[in-house]
Amino acid sequence: MAIIDEVVAKIEDWKDKTISVQQISGGLTNTNFKVEVDGMPYFVRVPGESTELLAVDRNNEYHNSKAAAEAGVGPKVLYHLPEYNVMVLDFLTGITMSKESLNVPGMPTRMAKVIKKLHAGPRFFLDFNMFRLTEYYLNICAERDIRIPDGYHDRMPTVARIEQAMNVKPLATVPCNNDLLAENYIDDGKHLWLIDYEYSGNNDPTFELGNTCQEMQFDEARIHEVCTAYFGTDSPAMIARMKLNMIMSDVGWGLWAAIQVNISKIEFDFWGWAIERWGRAVEKMDSTEFPTWLKEVQTS
C-alpha cells in the first residue's frame, strides 16, 4: 500500500467517507496530494526519501507550521501523523505564484508585508543559519563523494568574511521560512500565504528578504522596494545585508541541489540548478560592489 493510502486509512475522522486522492505537481523534495473527503479538500504532503541528509527536521517543521498558522500566514495543521512524518493541512484555494507573477508592480511590497507578519509571529522551534548549513552540506558531499561545482572550497574564506562582517552588528533573529521561492507563495485574491516550513527556523530577517529576492531574480528597484516595505527605509546597511545574504542563498542552496542529484527521485535538473546558483554567487563575490557591502554592514 502506498504511504498516501496508509495515511488516509489512519485518520479516524475520514472513516466511511467518500475519498478521492489526486497527486499535485510541483515540489522539489516531497510528493503533494489533494485529498477530498466528502467533497472537502485537504492538502497532504508525503516526504521524499533521505531528506534528513538535507537537514530537514520534521519535528521542527511541524512546530513551525503551527506557529506560522497562528501568525496568520500559513495554512492550519489539521492532522499530524509523526510515524509517517506527514501533516494534513487546510487546502489553500488560490494561485501558486511564479517568478513572473511576483515581479509585477506592487508584489514586492505585498511579499515584504506578509514576511514581516511571519517574523512578528511566535518563535520557531530551532534556529537556522546558512553558514552552518553550508558547512553541513559540504561535509555530506565529502562523506558521500558527491560532486559539487568547481571552486566551492576555494571560496570558503570569502564566505567566512561575509559572516564575520555581518556579525559585527548582528540583527535579532526572527521566525523565518528561509525557503521562499516563488512556488511557496499562494495568492487567494485577498491574502498572500506562505507555505512549506521544511527549512524554517529563527534567523536574521535579511536572509529571508535576500533569499526571496534572489529566488525571484529581483532587479535593484524591487530589492529596494522589499527593503523599504519591510524596514521603512532602504538604508545602505540593510541593502548590503540583503545583498550578502543573496550570495549565501545561492552558496547554500547550490549545495542542496548538488545533494539532490544523488538522492532525489523527482525529475528535475538539480545539477543545472547547482551550477546556475554557484555561478551567480561567484559573480557577486567578484563584483566591484562586494567590498562595499562588507563595509556597509559593519559601519551602519
Can you tag this structure with a few keywords?
5-stranded antiparallel beta sheet, 3-stranded antiparallel beta sheet, Phosphorylase Kinase, domain 1, 10 strands, 300 residues, 2 domains, Aminoglycoside 3'-phosphotransferase, Chain: A, domain 2, alpha+beta
Structure description:
It contains 11 helices and 10 strands. The protein is an alpha+beta fold and 300 residues long. It has 2 domains: 3-93, Phosphorylase Kinase, domain 1, CATH 3.30.200; 96-299, Aminoglycoside phosphotransferase (APH), C-terminal lobe (Aminoglycoside 3'-phosphotransferase, Chain: A, domain 2), CATH 3.90.1200.10. Strand 8 (185-187) and strand 9 (192-194) form a beta hairpin. Helix 7 crosses helix 9 and helix 9 packs across helix 11. The longest helix has 28 residues, at 236-263. It is globular and about 65 Å long. The relative contact order is 0.14. The model has no long low-confidence stretch (mean pLDDT 95).
CATH uppermost class of the largest domain: Alpha Beta
Helix run count: 11
**Distance N to C terminus:** 58 Å
Shape: globular
The H-level CATH homologous superfamily of the largest domain, spelled out, is Aminoglycoside phosphotransferase (APH), C-terminal lobe
Instruction: Characterize the biggest β-sheet.
Output: 5 strands, antiparallel
Task: Write down how many β-strands occur, each being a DSSP E stretch of 2 or more residues.
Answer: 10
Task: Write the CATH fold name of the largest domain.
Answer: Aminoglycoside 3'-phosphotransferase, Chain: A, domain 2
Give the amount of beta strand, in percent: 5-15%
Kindly name the structural category.
Answer: alpha+beta
Strand order of the largest sheet: 1-2-3-5-4
Number of domains: 2
